[in-house]
Amino acid sequence: MNTSIPSVPFRSSRRTRRVLAVLAGVVTASLALSGCLYSLIPESRPTSTASLPPDTDGVADDLLPFYEQELAWSACGAFECTTVTAPLDWENPATGEIELSVIRQRADSGEAIGSLLTNPGGPGASGVGLIRDSIDYAVGSALQEKYDVIGFDPRGVGESTAVTCLDAAAMDSYLFDIPADPRGSDAWTADRDEQNAQFAAACEANSDGILPFITTENAARDMDLLRAVLGDKKLNYLGYSYGTFLGATYAKLYPERVGRLVLDGAIDPAIPGSDVSTIQAIGFENALRAYMADCLTQSDCPFSGTVDEGMADLGTLLASVDQSPLPASDGRQLGADSLLTGIIAALYSQDSWPYLTSALSEALQGNPDVALQLADFYYNRQDGAYLDNSTEAFRAYNCMDYPLEDSEAAKAASDARIAAEAPTVAPYWSGPDPCAVWPYPPTGTRGAITADGAAPIVVIGTTNDPATPYEWAVSLADQLSSGVLITRVGEGHTGYNKGNACVDDAVEAYLLEGTVPQDGLRCE
């Protein structure tokens, strides 16, 4: 689930949806899980997009063919779907074209006040899938009543023109094979470098030349194209996790076209990648400690004693499977990397903690199947198949968005802080940077986004969010000239539509009526 920097093997937001895992049965003491790890603005009220023509105000001549296109919607289940043609290279529109997959649920009222674009995070998560599979979790009923809710797969993702790298068997080998050499040794590092190089070469060979154009800035420009062809003068947007970076980037590029933006589970665009990695590691450690404190109060918890003692025992389990991986029923082995992936997958929502308890209990008894199921949720893998290309798209975006960092002093300082403040995850957090062998140099930069002139932008942070730590929301709200901060006090990733009426009411009053929340609103 990840906004994380390229050197970290974990997304900060694989999906913004909670793990909707449900107990499917108990077979030989192992759980089977199923589900997905998926005052007023001084503007007039948004108007219906039902029959509005594309908005081409201020569009350069060479982009007019894209902005003037008319959409052909067709039924796709309970929704409507279409494709939008965008330039491959926004700086040189004649270079080529890509397709963007778009899904729409019409406003339940029949009279939409506008379009509400959504993004579930990643980078690499499918916005089409979010709406098609989980619209009630993505967007509350009050917003569905009044908005045409729009999901889209950003460039490189899912059903849009997509990054393609490995087949399922090769992806299994890349993600789950156990290195032959001890972690951290020169041979281990050389092996990981080679695996990363092979992955990058496969992406280049199979992605039809799109890799250098898979960037958040290009995706934000695509989002303005979507706004225009949907007939909206301004962008109304609800973005989660990585989607906050996408939304903030849009505001940087088009402050005058910002309508009502809500950025939930915020990323700080100003901090360097190494700091992103460090803060994420600490965030997951803190969430793991919160889980452990709760686990120790439960009768089925496999740990005992104090939180520190439980964390020490968990660290022993990680070290044990790192040295002696556990064979699974499907032929894979559970090593420390996959176990930590499964742990992290379950930390995104407190609702998933019981499944983490089951996974750890089973692993302590030598059965890794439940832990691997959690890891599979993280990668959207089911029955040996990968249901989307989110892992490939995640790598492609991060390798282009984050400048490479080669300061040994900065890396040493980061490693030391992680070891001190995240001792359980620290041994398995760092490794060779896969983006060091990416076929194209990064074009993204890190810096504060102010979006001067934009309408109020609402930023939501959750106090113990493991993937996008609360301090990032505070920082982004401070950076944005019109930023307004809402704080959800609690556990888990993101804050809206999680059962906190204070957050939900404030977000919906803003998106529906333009009522700007009190800056600093704190929702217990």
UniProtKB/TrEMBL annotation:
InterPro entries, sorted: AB_hydrolase_fold (IPR029058), Pept_S33_TAP-like_C (IPR013595), Serine_prot/Carboxylest_S33 (IPR051601)
Pfam families in UniProt: Abhydrolase_4
Domain (Peptidase S33 tripeptidyl aminopeptidase-like C-terminal): residue spans on this chain: 431-523
UniProt keyword annotations, A-Z: Hydrolase, Signal
GO MF annotation terms: hydrolase activity
Domain of life from the UniProt record: Bacteria
Family the UniProt entry places it in: Belongs to the peptidase S33 family.
Name of the protein described by the UniProt record: Alpha/beta hydrolase
The species this protein was found in: Microbacterium lacus
